């Protein structure tokens, strides 16, 4: 994906890289070809509920699609990634980003919250993913 490109361009680049026509992607997402065309032209944006399916169908991260892949990761984000998992309801006062996420999540409808949880589960690697990678690494022949 091109650095500095707008969402529509990044989306189109990801769709063509995945070798999907607008018709095929629209069918898989349960929307019209016109909606995809509007996204690519930058006239509209996908509905929240579609992001997990878009990520899966295009095989691109949401960071790449939404922000572009040239954006540096902030120190706050790196720090949050390395911090321990907090108990539900207990967010570190210093972690402004976590507070924002919790606040915004609370403003979502129940169906949007379910979609967000599903999206997060699709992004965050599970313990099974780590176990599979370890097994694959052990099974690789050594040179």
The total strand number stands at 0
Assign a percent range to the helix content: 55-70%
Count of individual helical segments: 9
Alpha-beta classification: mainly alpha
Shape: globular
Report on this structure.
This protein has nine helices and no strands. The longest helix is centred in the last third of the chain and has 14 residues. The two termini are 34 Å apart. About 17% of the residues have low confidence.
Task: Describe the secondary-structure layout.
Blueprint: H1 7-17, H2 22-29, H3 33-41, H4 51-58, H5 62-67, H6 75-82, H7 96-106, H8 110-123, H9 127-139
Helix pairs in contact: 1-3, 2-3
What's this entry about, in short?
The chain has helices at residues 7-17, 22-29, 33-41, 51-58, 62-67, 75-82, 96-106, 110-123, 127-139. By secondary structure, it is mainly alpha-helical. Helix 1 (7-17) packs across helix 3 (33-41).
Q: Which features does this protein show?
A:
143 residues, mainly alpha, 0% strand
């Amino acid at each position: 994906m091109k650095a500095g490109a707008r969402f529509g361009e990044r989306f189109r680049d990801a769709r063509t890289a995945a070798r999907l026509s607008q018709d095929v992607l629209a069918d898989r997402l349960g929307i019209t070809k016109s909606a995809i065309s509007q996204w690519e032209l930058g006239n509209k944006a996908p509905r929240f509920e579609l992001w997990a399916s878009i990520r899966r169908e295009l095989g691109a991260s949401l960071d790449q699609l939404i922000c572009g892949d040239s954006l540096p990761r902030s120190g706050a984000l790196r720090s949050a990634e390395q911090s321990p998992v907090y108990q539900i309801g207990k967010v570190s006062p210093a972690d402004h980003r976590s507070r924002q996420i919790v606040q915004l999540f609370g403003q979502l409808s129940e169906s949007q919250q379910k979609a967000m949880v599903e999206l997060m589960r699709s992004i965050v690697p599970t313990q099974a993913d780590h176990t599979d990678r370890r097994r694959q690494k052990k099974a690789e022949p050594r040179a």
